[in-house]
């Protein structure tokens, strides 16, 4: 099995078996202000939201996780079928293996999502480092592979820096993103992979014409930590050490959501989002939707029903938060009052050189 494909299987195994969670999203410091007189009927709350002209039943995204190994086909089938049933969005993991390797079993791990979710909002995924090797037609192949409604370009340079075989040439990436954003047939989402996007980066991406920013901030799955486990398994002790050292590196998700939303009007908040209440907080901070990845992995192994059950729980939690903030719609929730406390407040107030 080729190296890229084996790496996908390693990642899933490590996420399932090892401690790859960090804390510090900042959501613990965000408190929505309770509305004791909401003056709305809970059953009439509308959780739908528009994303690139597609109506989602709820502002929830099953974040990019996997694909590229035969063992991941079942996972992606369950996730896509659940997205179809509940009307939420779903992304696939990096499609590099599907683009570069001529293997029908590998391709099925991606193509299965459109088969299982014929009407679902699905987005593809390529790494920004690959944009330096690909032209736009290669990215279009990734779009066609799953009949994608949008394409995510993921930023993962900390992960690459820890990987023994990582790609650490980050020169020219912004220009490559700008080219794809202007020429690709579908909207382009730029997403981090667990270390967040700071305001200045969000400004550069907005100027480059990207259609959405998925902040994927600090506080959830740590890819630095995952690569540390992989490095240990092959005896790469220095990379193992660096992976542990940078395990909790990044911009907290709540901070990154606020900052990205201040410069771009379509922001997805992910990175340690673990509940419908977290989704509600993210939307109050300016996001269009909240995304989760790791919480769906175990249910996806069980089957579609388990994924749907989790999605319904998230939706009920979100609806409850909307009800007790007097928010009849997602647009109302974006205007809900909130308070920023603790370390997150200090972070926002303390930014700048020498502060």
UniProtKB/TrEMBL annotation:
Gene Ontology molecular functions: FMN binding; isopentenyl-diphosphate delta-isomerase activity; magnesium ion binding; NADPH binding; oxidoreductase activity
GO biological process, one term: isoprenoid biosynthetic process
Co-factor(s): FMN; Mg(2+); NADPH
Family matches, as SMART domains: IMPDH (SM01240)
EC class (word): isomerase
InterPro entries, A to Z: Aldolase_TIM, FMN-dep_DH, IPdP_isomerase
Protein's UniProt keywords contain Ligase: no
Residue positions binding FMN: 64-66, 94, 125, 191, 221, 272-274, 293-294
Domain FMN-dependent dehydrogenase: 22-95, 168-336
Entry keywords, A to Z: Cytoplasm, Flavoprotein, FMN, Isomerase, Isoprene biosynthesis, Magnesium, Metal-binding, NADP
Main subcellular location of this protein, as a coarse class: cytoplasm
Record-listed Mg(2+) binding positions: 160
Residue positions binding substrate: 7-8, 94-96, 159
Reactions that this protein is recorded to catalyse: isopentenyl diphosphate = dimethylallyl diphosphate
Pfam families: FMN_dh
Subcellular location: Cytoplasm
GO CC annotation terms, alphabetical: cytoplasm
EC number: 5.3.3.2
Chain's role: Involved in the biosynthesis of isoprenoids. Catalyzes the 1,3-allylic rearrangement of the homoallylic substrate isopentenyl (IPP) to its allylic isomer, dimethylallyl diphosphate (DMAPP).
PANTHER family according to UniProt: ISOPENTENYL-DIPHOSPHATE DELTA-ISOMERASE
Family that this chain belongs to: Belongs to the IPP isomerase type 2 family.
Subunit structure: Homooctamer. Dimer of tetramers.
Protein name: Isopentenyl-diphosphate delta-isomerase
Annotated organism of origin: Natronosalvus rutilus
Name of encoding gene: fni
């Amino acid at each position: 099995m080729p190296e890229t494909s084996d790496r996908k299987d390693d990642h899933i195994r490590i996420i399932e078996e090892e401690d790859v969670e960090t804390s510090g999203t900042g959501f613990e410091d965000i408190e929505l202000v309770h509305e004791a007189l909401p003056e709305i009927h809970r059953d009439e709350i509308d959780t739908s939201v528009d994303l690139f002209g597609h109506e989602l039943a709820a502002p929830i995204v099953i974040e990019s996780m996997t694909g590229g190994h035969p063992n991941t086909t079942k996972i992606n089938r369950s996730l896509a079928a659940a997205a179809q049933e509940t009307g939420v969005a779903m992304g696939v993991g990096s499609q590099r293996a599907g683009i570069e390797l001529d293997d029908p079993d590998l391709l099925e791990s991606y193509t299965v999502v459109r088969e299982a979710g014929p009407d679902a909002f699905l987005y593809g995924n390529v790494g920004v480092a690959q944009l330096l090797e690909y032209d736009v037609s290669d990215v279009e192949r990734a779009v066609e592979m799953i009949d994608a409604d949008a394409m995510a370009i993921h930023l993962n340079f900390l992960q690459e820096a820890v990987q023994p075989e990582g790609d650490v040439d980050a020169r020219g990436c912004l220009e490559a993103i700008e080219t794809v954003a202007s020429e690709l047939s579908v909207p382009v989402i730029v997403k981090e992979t667990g270390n967040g996007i700071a305001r200045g980066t969000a400004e550069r991406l907005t100027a480059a014409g990207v259609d959405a920013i998925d902040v994927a901030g600090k506080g959830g799955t740590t890819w630095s930590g995952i690569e540390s486990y992989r490095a240990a398994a092959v005896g790469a002790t220095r990379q193992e050490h660096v992976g542990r050292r940078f395990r909790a590196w990044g911009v907290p998700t709540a901070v990154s959501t606020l900052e990205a939303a201040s410069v771009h009007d379509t922001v997805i908040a992910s990175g340690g989002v673990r509940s419908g209440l977290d989704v509600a907080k993210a939307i109050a901070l300016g996001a269009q939707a909240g995304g989760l990845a790791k919480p769906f992995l175990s249910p996806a192994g069980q089957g579609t029903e388990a994924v749907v059950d989790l999605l319904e729980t998230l939706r009920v939690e979100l609806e409850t938060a909307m009800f007790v903030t007097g928010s009849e719609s997602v647009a109302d929730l974006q205007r809900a009052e909130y308070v920023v406390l603790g370390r997150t407040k200090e972070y926002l107030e303390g930014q700048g050189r020498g502060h």
